[in-house]
Amino acid sequence: ADTLSIALRDAYDIVTSPSRPQAIQLMRQLREPPTQALVDLGLPPLPHRPDEGFALIAELLKLAPDMRIVVLSGQNDDTNARHARTLGAADFIGKPCHPADLRKALDRLTLFAPEAAAVQEDARPSLIGNSPAMQKLRAQLAQYGDSPFPVLIEGESGSGKEIVARCLHYATARRSRPFLALNCAAISPSLVEPTLFGHAKGAFTGAAGARAGYFEDAGEGTLFLDEIGELPLELQAKLLRVLENGEYQRVGETQTRHSQARIVAATNRDLRQEIRSGGFRADLYHRLSVFSIGVPALREMADDRLLLLEHYRQHYAKIARQQPFDLDANARRLWLGYPFPGNVRELRNIVIRLTAKHPGALVATAELAQELDLPDEDVARISAMAAGEPSQTDAALKRLQDGQPFNLDAALAEMERAYIEAAISLADGNISQAARRLGINRTTLYSRMEATRPGLSSPRKQREQ
After folding, report:
1. Where are the alpha helices (DSSP H) in 112-171?
2. Eight-state DSSP code of residue 207
3. Complete DSSP assignment for 54-90
4. CA neighbor of 301 nearest in space, from 131, 126, 127, 128
5. Three-state DSSP state, 276
6. Within 13 Å and on the Cβ side, how many CA atoms surround 421?
7. What is the pLDDT of residues 175-215, one digit of tens each?
8. Which residues are 262's β-sheet partners?
9. What is the pTM of this model?
10. Three-state secondary structure call for residue 434
11. For residues 152 and 294, is the Cβ–Cβ distance under 8 A?
């Protein structure tokens, strides 16, 4: 961290943190979140596993959804790289990496940074797509738009809940009023109350003057409370009071004030489950969910994935001042079949990487597969097909058509023998570990070893002898 800080400090303002909890604490203390983050996967207390790094990616994006995250890690196998991208990382770089190459990767992402500001300034956000799921969403926005009652927006991470909230605001007579968004996960729990309700001068250490809160600043507009499931329980009771009668007080004051803002909340948590576990108030949930809107996951949006592809590839090519890439016919079929577990955020990051790597080029299936969170065997199969190598099905078809001698039992036995030997080799002879790799129990592996490897004496047979 110290070395990279020195290498990058001429171009970037840098803050560092040694662990995930400290990084989250630092984020909540900063006045503005960083636009980019450089994250290792192997963080304490698990430096040899990627778990902490994966968790940090998800938490950083919860606090700052527009942050561009680059993963720099020695745990750089393809599976970890693809999973980090699915969680929302914009790029993955394996160690060792020359600082100049890292600088290029960070500068490349900086090139696309204006997109975040463009989204924030867009006064008329729109939803892209014509699938039944999107048509239902538009119908709900039209139905609930001019109602004064709260709305709860539910959806998976990366599905675009804030865009939906903005569309709801601009579909109403409140469109000329303020739209304020507060991420409840992004600020320290001790600051949530003065941030929402305001505070009097001297109400707490650092309160040098009186200040209005979000409820006051929103006026008769819309107050969007993102990550509402992160709101502390003691604040939930005060929010409920505002929802019921519009009354609140600044911290340090006794004067009652009245809010006329419409509340729109969003969460990717199952709040019903949170209620059962004691983490969320049932009365607040029922008050917030007078109207509920479910944002569809990208896998439910059929051909809309192509419309989003077209939108983003043109958008980022314009920002980068270069020709947009395109997908060939097979790559488009792969694009339509991919479930996008990271939703629109993942799709957007894939388009950014393809724009940077293949400007003006026709992207083939093998190149696209490297950017998707697919099992290694699927990537290998797709790459082999793109290289013109026949699939196992095609090879079998040709062999049978040619009338070549073939014995199914012998072929299956040979395949089983090869997998058993490979698993035992990878496990250094440990039968229990080999069985876990093969997805079977140890006694089953012993039996199959005896059947497929004649002459091999298993530990069970040795005991019998």
Report:
1. 114-121, 132-144, 161-170
2. -
3. HHHHHHHHHH-TT-EEEEEES---HHHHHHHHHHT-S
4. 131
5. helix
6. 11
7. 889 999 999 888 888 888 999 999 998 888 778 889 999 99
8. 222
9. 0.71
10. helix
11. no
